Predict the structure.
Amino acid sequence: MQLTGHGTPKTLSDTPSRRRVTFRRLLLAAIAALILGIVFAAYLQPAFVLDLANRFILCL
């Protein structure tokens, strides 16, 4: 723990890099949740998923 100029302790949780890491984790979690939601929605439309798979295979 470091002391700032006023004698108050500066914790590691107050550093900008720590906040940046927390924001990045929240952003990655939100993106992962969005991708999982899209995959779940795709399972509700099996004909659409089959159509996309057929188009992908035909492009190869």
